Amino acid sequence: MELLCIGLNHKTAPVEIRECFAVGNHRLGEAAREIHTLAAVSEAVVISTCNRTEFYLAADSSTEAVAALESHLAGKTVSAGVASAHFYRFEKHHAARHLCRVVSGLDSMMLGETEIFGQVKQSYQAALDAGSTALVLNRLFQRAFAIGKKVRTETSIQEGATSVGNVAVDLAGKIFGHLGKSEVMILGAGEMSRITAQSLVSRGARSIFVTNRSFERAEQLAAEMNGMAVRFDDWQEVLERVDIVIASTGAPHAIVHREHVEQVRRARKFRPLFFIDIAVPRDIDPAVGEIEEVYLYDIDTLEQIASAARVKRQRQIEECERIIERELAKQALPGT
Predict the structure, then answer these.
(1) How far apart are CA 218 and CA 207, in angstroms?
(2) Which of 133, 167, 180, 218 has the fewest CB atoms lying closer than 10 Å?
(3) CATH for 164-304, among 3.40.50.720, 4.10.910.10, 1.20.1290.10, 3.40.640.10?
(4) What is the reported pLDDT for 168?
């Protein structure tokens, strides 16, 4: 049995490619089950976050498994040739090491981020519940979680690390200065929105409006943030007054289009409006950024901040890598 990983991330593919392969949290188990049913694949786990989509497979023949997966993905909205240029492939020990790096936050846009650990656990649990894992992937993911925990407890890789949501707020702060005079709308009430809202509150944002398709979830998050919940059908009315919109809904298509903003420009007296889109697929149509007083940033913009942090913490990265190699060497994993 051979272990392999096929995927793409923020380093190999821009957001417009990544969003074509994104899998919603509610479909992780279903997606793993679909791949597991391919003739050449014995086990499968699908990981999908705003920065990556990865397929971990166990198979008798890695060549046949890759061919089967590529055929399965061929129906996506980009051509096979364009997509293949952005995918990476790891086999055996290299696949195990890559997963450990992912779980440890070493392969993240924001070095040392904590969210990825829980996201990978959720992906694995979904595949486990779907019956698409067995000896190889069960052992792999259990070992990776143990190593990831060790990396985070024995190094300082998390010190000063910020999530994508925190960096989005940092960007807003650079644009406006002190956020105490800013009004903010959060589109989406998921975990990314929660983290972003908490950071906004800590930075002194004056008013926070939360809107979500589930009004109950919007109310819950708004209550935590001392903000105001807005019904999803009414978010455009709030757009007339806010300065910053941070979007992370998990919707499969754009929520905010150019015409939405055009309709409120006069009521806003053409004041600057800043959108930070941390969703994949993107929540905000890129055409919104073409409006004169509107400034739109998608998740790839945050890579610049991550690059600066990576240089400062290179020594910690090296120590983390040593821990991963040492722990993987203690006992061989099936498929490696």
Answers:
(1) 15
(2) 180
(3) 3.40.50.720
(4) 76
